[in-house]
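Write out the 3D structure for:
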Amino acid sequence: MKNKILNAFILILFLLISCEKNHLQKPNIIYILADDLGYGDIKTFNIDGKIKTPQIDKLAKDGIKFTDAHTSSSVCTPTRYGILTGRYNWRSRLKRSVLSGTSNALITKDRTTVASFLKQNGYLTGFIGKWHLGWNWYFSDTIIHYDSNPDQTKKTFYGFGEKNHSSADRIDFSKKITNSPNDLGFDYSFGHSGSLDMPPYVYVENEITTAKINRFTFAPKPYSWWRYGPTASDFDHDDVTPNFFEKAKSFVRNAVKKNKPFFLYLPLPSPHTPILPLTKWQGKSGLNSYADFVMQIDNHIGELDTLLEELKISNNTIVIFTSDNGCSPEANFNLLSEKGHYPSGKFRGHKADIFEGGHRVPFIIKWPKKIQAGSISDKTICTTDLIATCAEILDIKLDQSDGVDSFSMVPLFSKETQDNFERSYTIHHSINGSFAIRKGMYKFIFCPGSGGWSIPKPSQNETKNLPKFQLYNLDNDPSESNNLYGKFPELEEELIAIFKNAITNGRTTDGHVQKNFPTNRFNEKWEPLAIFSGDLFDL
């Protein structure tokens, strides 16, 4: 009898321990970042859109979609910096524009990233895709002639203003890279350095190039263009996106075999230029090559989601899907609009702009274990919010210097807790370094015009006659067509004061004052508050 009681007690204890272990099981996290994909390119965000995206729509149906999600910047590199660090890019040496494929590392080794934070807390971490945050190549003092007969007429400037090492033909590819993704918390890394139209065209796996340079390539065609540069024997532009998804699947399978929770950062090089849909996808959209490419990416995402089901890990895997900024004009807006498709939907502007089309992006989170299928949130969130979200999921407090512009999205995963969401304002940034601040329905823009590539462009003659600043009520005017600047002086003063504090405090979260990097990457002094000089404000 005693033995029976003892056995029963042991069984109950085992079940309790198993339940507790299951309760505390850390979720897997997959972060898929599309490149230059517009808010209006995904059907679930734009019912009038003409591109079919059934797999991404399914993610939204199975999880939560955010209709007011934003990138911290309207271009590539700055957004990626914000995702991994939880900081606005302009706190670093990158005050405007983007890096090149030959740029040195932007994130310093001592900076906590999402990857290093999760790795410290038991995660297997992987980066697969487009890095575009700089890493340190080994540069030779002289040009290395990888091409026996280089066509000098095809050489284009691809250093994007970098004062040192702007030429990929000085890289010694036999040497390991330094200041790499592996130094920032990633156990495994596989990718290329910049955008897919920026040389060098090589894969780097765990700090080592995967193949030797055997040619220089150049593509001047519309849609599919890329700059002239050294290209490795195993690098085919058409196959890069499919390769990254295959590598991603392998990483997931390996993590499951090791029985470890994993974080996979999967920043795609697409549908950014070169726009290269595989043969079987060409013409599928009935619109153009860009739309075909979006459909191909949608299919890849569906295959990855299916794998999670097959491995029986879908229930406790967080899948996040978004884009790094709005759609680029390279998509051929004129042709798309002729066929009734608008990549920015109802919003003004596109990639590079301070207008909504530059930084409002599709954003979806699927987590069956915690998020009710078919949920929708209209709260304003930012791509900097990832690290704070991970910290709350794990119930671990970030250090004072970490994630200074990051707010946990966890309260938004349930209707019962959404009022606990703490982000009260968001700061946006354009390609030329122009700012905007968003609080509630109001958006204050600290420049005339777009601050980017759409009309009125910076420094164009037509901006001379425009107000110095812009104020929009996005609830009533989502197209940002009615500038209210000057009509609500108290509101304007409030937003200006908040903006100034965000800069001087070095953070937008509560905590100790942090320092911003005082100069840009050219060692020029950074003076963001100079926009208030003159007779308009006495601040």
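Residues 12-23, 155-166, 535-539 have pLDDT under 50 and may be disordered.
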